[in-house]
Fold Major facilitator superfamily domain-containing protein.
Amino acid sequence: MSENTSLTVTLKAHNASQVANLHYLVHVALRARSRQVSALVIYPFIIQFVRDTDVTGGDETKTGNYRVRQESVFFLAACLTVVYFGRLSDRYGRRPVLLLGPVGLSLAMLGFGSSKKIWSLVFFRFIQGAFNGNNDSTSVAEIYSLLPFMWSIGSTLGPFIGGSLANPASRFPDSLGKIHLLREFPYLLPCATAGALALGAFIFGVLGLKETLPSAIARQKKGLLGTEVEPLLSNTSVSAQGDTLIANDVPHFEPSLFALCLTRSVIVFFNYACFLQPTFCFKVMIPLVYATPVELNGLGLSPLHIGRIMGLCGFLNMLPRPSAGRIDSTVILIMIFQMSCSFVVLSIFACTQIFIVDSAPSQKSLGSVNGLAQMVAATLRSIAPSFASSLFSTSVSHHLLGGYFVFFVLCSFSLCAVWASLLLPKKLRH
């Protein structure tokens, strides 16, 4: 009888653990999707959004510069905050940090969509970057294998939502266009949609996400022992269990950020940086080239066309758009093929994240190591927009290598990334 009872308890505990792991996997996947959508939803209409603020006074040559500034501040915010989010997750628990990101991101998206001044765009883009850099670090290979798939979904949904729902007064004059709020704020609808996805991840996390940090779990159990269990147990029993929990909750030594940089993580960080620089430059240039007028060596596409091309780039079945002027079906197919090839990069992100987690000296420093890695990424992201756009402008204006000098530079960065990958450890430690 006792053996059957023990087996039943064991099976229930195993099932509960599986359910908790499933909740965690789904929450991480939803967060990855919402973060990607929030980052990319503005790409199809951001150039027009900047024009609508009238900050450039009609000078198209300045539009790209203002777009670059708000993009740089997005990743600058992530650079300034991501390490501290990692430290907070190591100290206070994974769950509160995981829940903080989506709710903050949803509010920032609403603020961005309801902006009318350039300073407001920059401010809310900064807030987006801060909460978009908010991340947990305890995921393992099984979780990271899901991320490329969710990033692909987010990369498809984000631009498609931004291009299709922007300016509903002209897109849907007989339905959504009749709503005064959407006429007053033409870019609120796509931003609110992205915010709703982030809010959905938050609600799912509140309902099903459990704490995974051992010290935080120990503190929770110790609190339960001190309030509910203590009156029902003898002093000896409480003392024995309390001693066990306190032993698990002894303050541990947390290595400094500088000490972490001196570990094997530095090789992984260097590889990560070499890989990210050309990747971010490429992502920045895509909407810039697409939205720049043809007379300035761009393609002169509208937000709707940009959103559809970027949103459907994984499918290679985009129909030609007659209103694209000089852009014929051949150019459209080449653009889609170019962007669809970039999805190969997503698998490299997952592999690099596994190396980052493996490079941590201990489980207790996972948050800090992941925070440092994300800080490297955010730093490069904040530099890439200005670097890529300036190099593109210089290449075109001075006709360097026929105007294609910028692409030769990006190719050289890619070759450096290949060399850096050879420095990575041959085997994982964990």
About this structure: The mean pLDDT is 70.
